[in-house]
Amino acid sequence: MNRNSVIPFALLAFCALTACSKNEIQYYEIPKETRNVPTRADGLPPGHPPTTGLSPGITWKTPEGWEEGEPQGAVKGSFHIHRKDRPHAEMVVLDFPPHAVQIEDFANLLSDELKIASDHRPTGTEAFEKFTAGEKEFTLIRLTSETPLKGEDYKTSVLAAVLKEPSRIWFFNLKGAEPTVLAESDNFFEFLKSIEIDQDPHAGLGDGMAMAMQSLPEEAVSQEGNPQWTVPEKWEPGRPSQMRRGSFQVMGENNQMADIAVTTFPGDVGGMLANINRWRGQVGLGPITAGMTGGVIKEMVINGKQCQYVDLVGMDPPTGKIFPQRSLVGTFSHEGNSWFFKMSGDSDLVETQKQNFMDFLNSVRF
User: Fold this and answer.
1) 197 has which bridge partners?
2) Do 174 and 224 have their domain in common?
3) Do 239 and 336 belong to one domain?
4) Residue 139 maps to which CATH number?
5) 213 and 279 share one domain
6) For every one of its 366 residues, what pLDDT tens digit does the chain have, with 9 covering 90 and above?
7) Distance between alpha carbon 138 and the CA centroid of its chain, in Å?
8) Are residues 101 and 219 part of one domain?
9) Where in the sequence is the domain holding 38, given as residue range(s)?
10) 256 touches 348 (CB < 8 A)
11) Extended strands (E) in 145-290
């Protein structure tokens, strides 16, 4: 991926997970799963590593009240911040090859998103603050829209940090209503202080990977009460997460990656239409109406259970410089809970893995 293709992709990734439209709010309101499992002081289940790193080589400590979301494309970590007394905000983590994006380019992308006039944008290295935590030096970008953006009640603010490492360049972006970003800035800086990076690209998973290996064998029940399934060849254990009952990843020949997640929630989590529109937004597609779902949902019966299957191919952005994303989703209802089996990633890779995903779905037994 060259630099010109990385830059627009960064902005697309931010828009997808930082509330560029209010249609995404339904996703954040999905109730958390409840299990009769004792929790630790940090809120994670027994055996879960104390910090969460969504990409090999990086770990962090999640601030209290930040709810972990799902990665999408270049986004390696996402957090939803909802306080009762303030509008929502989002924080995302991205990583790219070194020298892929310059800080000034990134500041301009954010300024474009916030519709900041060209003469009010930061220019030159002296325009950016520095923040040092341990031996790591972050470059900070602070921006606020000049007026509330369309559909918003407050001005939108961004507090972003750039960390350059020998093997990667990392972006940490807190975005939301101006009063919320201001109130969460201390948590943002504590988050940056907690970051640890191992230069070994295969390091950083530690006990978390060991746990994933143990809990996700080829034919297994990963947690008590979970369905059984058979994992296709070449699918590797994915990132550990308290939200996931199963987690896998598969790599393509050109270093593309597809992420496979198994999650479950009580009830119907807003209904199939809301879920489809959320998934469509994640691959750059617009929402559909209830009358259009018949052309999107494929009904199947798998091992005696009704399954609703959706295949969503993303749209190329106007620049045409990045590959579209694609998501395959199979959903089941079992004993009052909704189960989601989802593969998402580079469209070409997902196409090559489509049969493996169907085999995976067909192996599911409750």
Assistant:
1) 58
2) no
3) yes
4) 3.40.1000.10
5) yes
6) 444 444 444 444 444 444 443 333 333 333 333 333 333 333 333 333 333 334 446 788 999 989 887 665 556 788 889 888 889 899 988 877 665 567 887 788 888 888 888 888 887 666 789 999 878 999 999 999 999 988 888 999 999 999 988 777 888 999 999 999 999 999 999 999 999 886 543 333 333 333 333 333 333 334 456 789 999 988 998 876 667 888 899 998 887 889 999 988 888 877 899 889 888 877 877 888 888 998 999 999 999 999 999 999 987 655 554 557 899 999 999 988 899 999 998 889 999 999 999 999 999 999
7) 22
8) no
9) 3-197
10) yes
11) 156-164, 169-177, 196-197, 219-220, 229-230, 236-237, 246-251, 257-266
H helix count then E strand count, the chain: 9, 18
211 and 350 in one domain?
Answer: yes
CA–chain centroid gap for 162, Å, is: 18
Spatial contact of 57 and 200, defined as CB atoms under 8 Å apart: yes
- The CB-side HSE value for 284 (13 A sphere, CA atoms) comes to 21
CB neighbours (10 Å) of residue 178? Answer: 18
Say yes or no: 177 and 295 in one domain.
no
Q: Are residues 173 and 248 in the same domain?
A: no
**N residues, the chain:** 366
Domains identified in the chain, total number: 2
Q: Is residue 202 part of a domain?
A: no
Domain boundary residue, one of 163, 197, 231: 197
Question: Which stretches of the chain are assigned E, i.e. beta strand?
Answer: 58-59, 66-68, 75-83, 86-96, 129-133, 136-144, 156-164, 169-177, 196-197, 219-220, 229-230, 236-237, 246-251, 257-266, 297-302, 305-313, 325-334, 337-346
